């Protein structure tokens, strides 16, 4: 059977809106991974000791071989670090220790979370970093897993994938924050300007003249059309159908609201304002807890805005269709 390929490094796309509950789940994941790395090392050491015993045929007790290998691969590291906006770093044994520290110091603003576990050597390690201040060529979420036992590595990967599925932003939020929001800024601003200058139309006021023509048409119809008035009746119809306006008729220009432009201006303005707040990766504990709440509320506002705009478009289309 071919070896299953498990990528060592992964960069799942954000934004990552991580609150207390998500970080508690991350702590549980971190402890499970740490335990599995320990299991992988123990399993590998035992297998290596048995293999050595078979190869060199020396009369050395298996337990002594295992103890020797354990001393050789005794490197053990399990650490969780959090960096704050003021540059200070706090280190704990796991994510729970960090949560407890920040809960007692709510004025702290986390910017980066780093966790790492190593057992034996660097071929048996897990590390994860969440960077809320990632630069243009950097990623805001990245993890790496290397395990000396392929079967256990696959189990670890499954655990990580499960946590990611349960805590990452949904597809709509990712598309909005990473793709749609940028053209909305530029196209929205241009559309707002064009619709704003088109909110009113300048039209010629010929209502009085057209009203007089209609009165003449009605009078002709009441009298009846015959050979003596057929030419004048035809002339009246032609004037109405062709929007004819004699030179001696006074033309007045007036401003009338452009309903289509008004609706476009209103809808685009709402959408553009909603796009100004773009949810970004955040470690929503301590001082960042309120911003996380704002992001989640704003996402609901965006969904509501899009739903209202969609309903308005459908309603207008339906009215146009039944009046067509």
Task: Please provide a written account of the structure.
With 324 residues, the protein is an alpha+beta fold. The chain has three domains: 9-168, no CATH class; 170-199 and 259-278 and 285-324, no CATH class; 201-257, no CATH class. It has nine helices and ten strands. It has helices at 20-56, 62-72, 95-104, 150-167, 171-196, 207-223, 230-242, 259-275, 289-322; strands at 9-10, 17-18, 75-84, 89-92, 110-120, 125-131, 141-146, 200-205, 252-257, 282-283. It has a six-stranded antiparallel β-sheet, covered by helices on one side. Strands 2-10 form a two-stranded parallel ribbon. A two-stranded antiparallel sheet has the order 8-9. Strand 5 and strand 6 (125-131) form a beta hairpin. The longest helix is centred in the first third of the chain and has 37 residues, at 20-56. Residues 1-6 have low confidence and may be disordered.
Radius of gyration: 37 Å
Average pLDDT number? 81
Number of helices: 9
Main sheet characteristics = 6 strands, antiparallel
Rounded to the nearest angstrom, the distance between the terminal CA atoms is 67 Å
Please tell me what the overall shape is.
Answer: rod-shaped
**Domains, number:** 3
Helix content: 55-70%
The tally of beta strands, per DSSP, is 10
What is the ordering of alpha helices and beta strands?
A: EEHHEEHEEEHHEHHEHEH
Strand arrangement in the largest pleated sheet = 1-7-6-5-3-4
Residue windows where pLDDT falls under 50 for at least 5 positions = 1-6
Q: What's the quaternary structure here? A: single chain
Query: Structural class per helix/strand content?
Result: alpha+beta
How much strand content do the residues show?
15-25%
């Amino acid at each position: 059977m071919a070896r299953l390929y498990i990528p060592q490094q992964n960069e799942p796309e954000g934004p990552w809106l991580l609150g207390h509950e998500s970080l508690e789940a991350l702590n549980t994941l971190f402890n499970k991974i740490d335990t599995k790395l320990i299991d992988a090392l123990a399993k590998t050491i035992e297998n290596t000791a048995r293999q050595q015993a078979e190869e060199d045929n020396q009369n050395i007790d298996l337990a002594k071989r295992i103890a020797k290998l354990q001393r050789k691969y005794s490197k053990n590291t399990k650490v969780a670090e959090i960096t704050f906006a003021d540059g200070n770093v706090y280190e704990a044994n796991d994510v729970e220790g960090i949560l407890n520290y920040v809960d007692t110091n709510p004025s702290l603003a986390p910017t980066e979370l780093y966790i790492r576990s190593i057992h034996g050597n660097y071929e048996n390690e897990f590390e994860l970093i969440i960077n809320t201040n990632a630069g243009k060529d950097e990623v805001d979420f990245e993890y790496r897993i290397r395990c000396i036992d392929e079967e256990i590595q696959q189990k670890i990967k499954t655990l990580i994938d499960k946590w990611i599925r349960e805590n990452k932003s949904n597809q709509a939020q990712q598309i909005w924050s990473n793709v749609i929001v940028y053209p909305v800024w530029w196209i929205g601003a241009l559309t707002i300007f064009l619709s704003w200058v088109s909110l009113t139309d300048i039209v010629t006021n010929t209502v009085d003249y057209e009203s007089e023509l209609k009165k003449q048409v009605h009078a002709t119809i009441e009298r009846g059309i015959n050979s003596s008035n057929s030419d004048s009746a035809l002339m009246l119809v032609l004037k109405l159908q062709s929007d004819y306006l004699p030179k001696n008729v006074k033309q007045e220009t007036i401003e009338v609201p452009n309903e289509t432009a008004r609706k476009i201006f209103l809808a685009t303005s709402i959408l553009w304002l909603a796009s100004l707040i773009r949810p970004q990766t955040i470690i929503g504990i301590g001082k960042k807890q309120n911003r996380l709440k704002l992001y989640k509320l704003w996402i609901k506002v965006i969904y509501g805005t899009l739903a209202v705009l969609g309903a308005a478009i459908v309603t207008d289309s339906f009215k146009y269709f039944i009046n067509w």
